[in-house]
């Protein structure tokens, strides 16, 4: 699954266009490397997102095309 779509489905970032812009700005890292929005994400990958001064680091646990709001937190684990 594309990185921008995973960020939206997992609700780490609210909109796909915002996720796309964050990737273009170089604020999203996958396994320690700056990632474009088109990078394929798989289970076990570590995603790091920089929100201003705050950094969020998560591990991908599952990949789903769609998910309910309650189940979105099952897709990743905070590190």
From TrEMBL:
Q: How does it assemble?
A: Associates with stalled 50S ribosomal subunits. Binds to RqcH, 23S rRNA and the P-site tRNA. Does not require RqcH for association with 50S subunits.
**Gene name linked to the record:** rqcP
Domain annotation RNA-binding S4: ranges:
1-64
Q: What organism does this protein naturally occur in?
A: Bariatricus massiliensis
Matching SMART domains: S4
Top-level division of the source organism's lineage: Bacteria
Its keywords, alphabetically, are:
Protein biosynthesis, RNA-binding, rRNA-binding, tRNA-binding
**Spans traversing the lipid bilayer:** none
Q: Does the keyword rRNA-binding apply?
A: yes
What family does the database annotate?
Belongs to the RqcP family.
List the protein's name: RQC P-site tRNA stabilizing factor
Q: What does this protein do?
A: Key component of the ribosome quality control system (RQC), a ribosome-associated complex that mediates the extraction of incompletely synthesized nascent chains from stalled ribosomes and their subsequent degradation. RqcH recruits Ala-charged tRNA, and with RqcP directs the elongation of stalled nascent chains on 50S ribosomal subunits, leading to non-templated C-terminal alanine extensions (Ala tail). The Ala tail promotes nascent chain degradation. RqcP is associated with the translocation-like movement of the peptidyl-tRNA from the A-site into the P-site.
Annotated InterPro entries: RqcP (IPR025490), S4_RNA-bd (IPR002942), S4_RNA-bd_sf (IPR036986)
């Amino acid at each position: 699954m594309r990185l921008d779509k995973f960020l939206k489905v997992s609700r780490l970032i609210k909109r796909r266009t915002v996720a796309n812009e964050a990737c273009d700005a170089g604020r999203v890292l996958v396994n320690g490397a700056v990632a474009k929005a088109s990078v394929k994400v798989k289970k076990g990958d570590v995603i790091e997102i920089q929100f201003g001064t705050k950094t969020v680091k998560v591990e991908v646990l599952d990949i789903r095309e769609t998910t309910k709001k309650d189940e979105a937190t099952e897709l990743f684990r905070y590190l």
